[in-house]
Amino acid sequence: MLRFKLKYLLNNKQNRLILMLTAGVSLLITLIGLFSYREYRNALDTELNTPNVELLQINVDVTNRAFRESDNKAVDLSFHPAVLKYIEAATGDNARIAAEPQEYLKTLATEPDVHAISVIKFKDHSVLSSGYGYVSSWENAPEHAWESWIGEIKEKPLLIKRRLYTGTDSRLSETELLSLARPVVENGEVTGAVLIDLDYDMLFSKMYTHLSNYQLVYNLEGELIYPKLNLPFPLADMQNVLKDIDVSPFAHVRIGGQAYMANQTFSNVTGWRLISLVPMEQLLKNVKIARNMMLMLSLISIAVGLSAIYYYNFAAFRPLKRINKLLLPEQKAAGQGGLYDLEPVIGKLVGDFQSKSLVADWSLPELRSKFVQDLITRSIGTQETQTKFEHYFGGWTEGPFETLALSIDRHTQWAAGFIEEDQLLLKYAMINIVHEYFEASWRSVIAAPQKDSLVILLQAKSREEKPLYTDARKLADLILEVLNISVSIGIGEQAGAIAQVPRSYSEAQLALSYRLYEGYAHVRVYSHAENKYEESSGSADEAWKQEMLSALKSSDARAAQEWIRRWSAETRKKGIQPQKVFRTVDDLLEEILHIAAAGGYPLPAELADYTWHQVSTMELQEIEDMLCSIAVHMAGAFGAHRQSKEFLLVQNLIKYMEENLQFNIGLQDIASHVNMGVSSVSTIFKEETGTTVYDYLTNLRIDKACELLQDSTLRIADIALQVGYQNENSFIRVFRKIKSTTPGKFRENSKSSKEYADQPKPRHSGVSEDSE
């Protein structure tokens, strides 16, 4: 019966087509999975090989530097006159001659990583040490474990041996040493040796290690030098690794059934070989899962195909049609359809899933940056903050977080040297440097809330205390070295939770602003003491600005510069909060821009493209120099303008108005005074003063009225007549519009202790009362 059913199913053309498609799709998925696994592994080898080799080279340089310093001492000692005199001396003179070289040995042995320095004499087997002095025989020396191999120095120019301290000093019992020996040559013959004992632990503590790999050091004889304890692998297995890797810089090896990627490099100073082993199991875990999932998908597709064939005319086909209908609702099912619908259905499912996964992966960095920018600008609420953090920051913990504000010094001057595309490229490079610099120890997200600055959100990958100030200092130096961009960095206090990051960023911004006093390329950590200064702007700020602007308008550049320098010195002396200083300067420059725009004066180069960042990224001395330069330019512009005929014409009109305030003069009278038309006078006056003739005349009358209200006892009606108003009510209405109070209230506030000449008017007089 089963044979009959199979024969029937295979005779169906549609079934055969489904079977071929199923087999083809399964084979293709399998090949893609295996190919992807191989390519990923090759790419992983390439990506990991370079940083591991670089780490090994760094460690080689560290050990080379330590040994080179000691080797230089040994070489110097082998040629030192006092040492040579001791080596050449007769045995009976050794004790007498040893005093001078021993003092020199003690001087050189003061480094913390040097235990002792010894001079060994082959002729009579005597030894002179910085630790125990002169001993006539090696065997009687407190520590002479080097006796068995020191003779090798006659065949080799340099010996480096790892050994245990075997002397009588209980404090150094079982201490691990690295002994470096150099020969002392006399007339072509090795007559002695200089031996320097180095602290093993202190030397190798300077090496850089990585959490995910193992590092081992072997000497030329294949003996293990490092590490000395907690060996990750049996020594016998490591001998096989040494044979497998031989002299190649990179190889795949197996230890205890586990696969490792091995890298090695050699020291040209010590002859040691440094080997790093990176376990491949963890690295390939995800790609193996992906490969197995592809293989599983292949098996599933085969099962689906066979099931589809087997249940061709059964209920299993009905759910498939329903799925197809849900995915493609615009297509109406015609008839029963066929199982060939399976391929587009699965293809759409897999394709949609893959597309969405790729979009999510590509968008994640941008989503994180946008989240940080919204967070520090307080554009999102607490609940939305927590939800997005959980979605976007997989692998991060709830806290703590570190916040840095990084700003380009002299941003406006820096930006002027590049076109916009180049600026974007340099900022992109700077972001990449920041990511790569913090990648080893920190999780990082970078956003650019302003043109001149970046905000860097960090979280340590381990619980160890991280020297963030030192890292920030090195980062600033690295950006200056690589990109030639000077940056300053502010560091806020640690944020215990993601919701506290805006507060930490504000603190970082405040710390950064102290670039005003500390100069460029500075790194500063926020301190609560910085928040003690008053934020509000006092009258003193307005006073110096008005004096400075008055000097400019009078074309007195020297006086304007003197006010600027006086303000700068006072600011530096008081240590005023930088943000307040920036606002003061910004207000001054905005006022100068407004005056220049109203009068049509040419702008100085410093204000050609002015923005807030121009001031906030400068130090105080440069701000002072910039303001002095602007003052010289604007004073010259004002001076040139004061000689123009338009300026002189307007001054003539103003003088005429001031001398005739008591008369009912109008625009026609003012224009007739200079024999010009009303339209021409109005245009020129508006361009020169920024206001109309009528408004200027009205303000002159009200200012004169204020003087009379304060300094005289005249009635308000009389004052109105003296400033050109025939009707008292009109005068009161205009006065209230300009001064936001009535003349009577103004006089009461100014001269509350004096009697006024005005007596209350009867209600039937027909004149409006001067009420509030």
From TrEMBL:
InterPro entries: CdaR_GGDEF, Homeodomain-like_sf, HTH_AraC, HTH_AraC-typ_CS, Tscrpt_reg_AraC-type_HTH. Residues 745-761 have a biased composition (Basic and acidic residues). The keyword DNA-binding applies. The keyword Magnesium does not apply. Residues 651-749 form the HTH araC/xylS-type domain. Keywords: DNA-binding, Membrane, Transcription, Transcription regulation, Transmembrane, Transmembrane helix. SUPFAM superfamilies: Homeodomain-like. The chain crosses the membrane at residues 17-37, 293-312. GO terms for molecular function: DNA-binding transcription factor activity; sequence-specific DNA binding. Pfam families: GGDEF_2, HTH_18. Residues 743-772 are annotated as: Disordered. This is AraC family transcriptional regulator. The lineage of its organism: Bacteria, Bacillati, Bacillota, Bacilli, Bacillales.
